Each structure stands twice: as C-alpha cells, then as structure tokens.
Amino acid sequence: MFTDDELLPISALQHLLFCARQCALIHLERVWAENRLTTEGRHLHAKAHDGPPGWEGRVRVARGLALRSYRYGLAGQADVVEFEPPVAVPIPAKWHPGSSSDWSGWRITPIEYKRGRPKQDDSDRVQLCAQALCLEEMLAVSIDSGALYYGRRRRRTVVPLDAELRELTVGAIRRLHELIASGQTPPAVREPKCDNCSLIDICLPDLFGRNQSATRYFERAVESQLAATAPATDLDTRKDPL
Questions:
Q1: Residue ranges per structural domain of the chain
Q2: Which residues 6+ apart lie within 8 Å of 145 measured at CB?
Q3: Residue in 173, 242, 214 with CA at minimum distance from that of residue 2
Q4: CATH code of domain 4-187
Q5: At what angle do helices 123-139 and 163-182 cross, to 10 degrees?
Q6: Whole-angstrom distance, CA of residue 189 vs CA of residue 151
Q7: Integer-rounded Cα radius of gyration of the chain
C-alpha cells in the first residue's frame, strides 16, 4: 500500500507509454510546454469537467471526480463517470458519488475525453483502465468496461476492461513507480512521434538522440553557418559564357 505522498498522477501513465523521457521531463524535472495539440486537449478536458452534473434518464453523470488508489499508488481526476442504478433502485432525490455505501448492482462507467482519433498505442486505454482500478478500490465494485470519447470522431469507443488490459495497466503502473523512484531521465531517442511532442525544444532529440553526438551536431551546425555566410568566389559569380 502506498501513502498519500507516494501517489503519482494517473495522467503520467499516458506520458510514460508515449515516451519515458517525456514522462521523466514532466514528472521528475517539472518542465512543461504547450503546443496546439496539448491546448486542444486541455480545452476538451475543461469542457468535459465544466458541464453540469445531473441525471440523464436513469444515469447520474459525475464530472471531474477525484480518484485515488493506495493499492496502486495513483491519484487523479476522471473527466466523466456515469452511475446507473439497478432497475429496482429508485432514483434518489439528492445524490452525489459518496452518498451510497452499497454500489452492488450499479453499472459504473468511467469516460475519458481525448482530442483527435484513437491512437495506435495503448496509452489511452491504459489511462482509462487505471481510472477504473481507482474507482473499484474506492467504491468496492467491479467495472467491466469504460469508454473513450474522441473529439474528432464525436462518439464514444467502448473499452472492455479485460484481463489483458488490466495486466498491461498494472505493468505500466509498476514501470512508472520505478522510473520516478530512480530519479533518472532516460536519454533522448529521435523518433517520428517527436514532431508532435510539445517538449521537443526542451528534450532536443536531434541533439542528444541515438547515434548523434553533441560534438558532431555542433560541427555540422558550424559548417552550415560558415557555408551560409562565406563570400562568393569569382567562380560562383561569373556568368556562363554561352
């Protein structure tokens, strides 16, 4: 069991699965930078959090719900969590997520909002599963599925929280705690996905990436600068006699 001081952000799991160096820069070195993609994502999350809570038919919608797990050492916030009571349970006049001590029979669904489209990696699914693990611990329930809402598609994608995804998520949680406990930022590795990272100008993967020494980088930079500022020679400026 972890203590309050040892709880790590659920969002760090997505950073870890995207890039361990990015995760360390954000959560160890405490650096951050915005770009268009992060700004769009932040606005989408704010919209999901700021919407009014309430009943939609027999489903109670909670927004910006605080989450934590002492078993896994996580804390964070869910964009939306839907609570659907059993048919035999009447809709209470006054209700909030902590108003019930018995959630047996309720269908509880975490929903995470994301910009763009579904990713090729598992980062979104792992983040959603981690939210479900927190809810299961907090409410003593079992959650069989969640959903991802993508802004570009404007519809939900149902995510089964099966054994494979849970194992993947628990493994990512373990690696996250190991990374933070190490206090070490991994070296840069230049990959195509770096172009979409808001930290590219801080990370400098072109300078420190694999097979790229700082000495050679500066040598090429100096050569390029000299070539750009070198005076033209007679050979460069003479006209073609033809």
A1: 4-187
A2: 109, 158, 159, 160, 161
A3: 173
A4: 3.90.320.10
A5: 90
A6: 30
A7: 24
Whether the CB-CB separation of 33 and 199 falls below 8 Å is answered with: yes
How many Cα atoms within 13 Å fall on the side-chain side of residue 209?
12
CB 160 within 8 A of CB 145: yes
Instruction: Give per-residue pLDDT as tens, 88-146.
Output: 777 766 666 555 567 888 999 999 998 777 777 899 999 999 999 999 999 999 999 99
pLDDT digits (tens, 9 = 90+) for 135-189: 999 999 999 999 999 877 778 899 999 999 999 999 999 999 999 999 999 988 8
Residue with tokens 């268009």: 36
Nearest to 110 by CA among 131, 125, 84: 131
Q: What are phi and psi of 66, to 5 degrees?
A: -70, 135
CA distance 49 to 60: 15
Ramachandran angles phi, psi of 54, nearest 5° = 155, -175
Q: Is the dihedral of CA 73, 75, 78, 83 positive or negative?
A: positive
- Write out the two tokens for 220: 């090429």
**Interatomic CA distance for residues 187 and 213, integer angstroms:** 12
